[in-house]
Design brief:
124 residues, alpha/beta, Rossmann fold, five-stranded parallel beta sheet, 5 helices, 16% strand, globular
Length: 124
């Protein structure tokens, strides 16, 4: 099974500063964006979004007919250690490949998930 990070791959990233200045507007803006990429076949999504965004996120995915097998909310809240939550999900789901959009999380994910090919998503 293949896994994807949500923000930065399936939906474009909103600048982090916007979440600090006006979080409600940042979330609203993020929810207005069309998908930047739609995976094909069976896949899972592991996102750092908090559990409180679950209904909104699932509704957004459904509105664009994006149907992952599973969506896991790592609940990292943008912290430096958010990759630990993702790593646990990647490990327990035994993913073959996981695409991550954050360069700062790649190294940690690769160390913790040696059974999985962790790939940095590069938009062409």
């Amino acid at each position: 099974m293949i896994g994807y990070d949500l923000d930065g791959i399936i939906v474009r990233d909103i600048p982090k500063i916007l979440y600090k200045i006006c979080p409600k507007f940042a979330v609203w803006l993020r929810d207005q964006l069309a998908p930047a990429y739609v995976p094909e076949g069976e896949f899972v999504i592991i996102t750092e979004r908090p559990y409180t965004d679950e209904k909104r996120t699932l509704a957004w995915l459904k509105s664009y007919s994006i149907c992952p097998v599973l969506v896991r909310f790592a609940n990292g809240g943008g912290t430096d250690k958010a990759y630990l939550c993702k790593a646990w999900d990647i490990y327990t789901l035994r993913l073959e490949v996981f695409y991550e959009s954050s360069e700062k999380h790649i190294e940690g994910l690769r160390k913790l998930c040696s059974q999985t090919k962790i790939k940095l998503w590069r938009r062409v």
